[in-house]
Amino acid sequence: MKSPKKSGPGGMRIIAGEWRGRKLVAPDGETTRPTADRTRETLFSMLASRIGSFEGLYVADLFAGSGALGLEALSRGADRVLLVEQDANAVKALRKNIASFDAKAKCDVRASSVMALGPAQEQPDLIMMDPPYETGAGAVALDKLNRLGWIAPGAWISIETSRKEDLSVAGFDVDTVRDSGKGRIHLLRLANI
């Protein structure tokens, strides 16, 4: 059994906030594709210009991989984060990152598929999804989460896709789309907000 690979020179790190510059462990294998630092920086800049402060937010990091998005949100002041990931190697790296940041009390890790989530017990202020590229999984998951009551009226949703993909989900308005590296970031909200 391989242990999660460590981030090497120029590897993944926290971009800003309390843990700025701290290294993240990336999952072993080819199953997950960690969000590049530059893409994460672009995403959080886009969110900050719309949300303002992350202080006190409840955040969901779905298709979490190493947990980089959720931990970045915590570093910037989010109160707590739900991290959902089904790949065993990614969950191992995710738990190692949470432990190294001493963030266990603020993290709810669910080692399962996003599609296995049941009805929401509480609605996140921000939902970030980084599903596998070119699968349509982000749109399918968002539609299901909406039907299960996960989407609060004022919540922001980010979904990263490949540059080749467009995204449209019934009941949601696309606020903005921005290309970054190999990815495309989509910010969405419930329609008529």
Describe this structure in words.
- There is one protein chain.
- The chain is α/β, with parallel strands linked by helices.
- 24% of the residues lie in helices and 22% in strands.
- The protein contains four helices and seven strands, in the order αβαβαββαβββ.
- β1, α2 and β2 (80-84) form a beta-alpha-beta unit.
- Residues 1-10 have low confidence and may be disordered.
Give the key terms:
globular, alpha/beta, seven-stranded mixed beta sheet, 193 residues
Q: Tell me, what's the shape?
A: globular
Low-confidence stretches: 1-10
Main beta-sheet annotation: 7 strands, mixed
Q: Assess the beta-strand content as a share of residues.
A: 15-25%
Helix/strand/pairing category:
alpha/beta
Please state how the strands of the largest beta sheet are arranged side by side.
3-2-1-4-5-7-6
* Gyration radius, rounded: 15 Å
How are helices and strands ordered from N to C? Answer: HEHEHEEHEEE
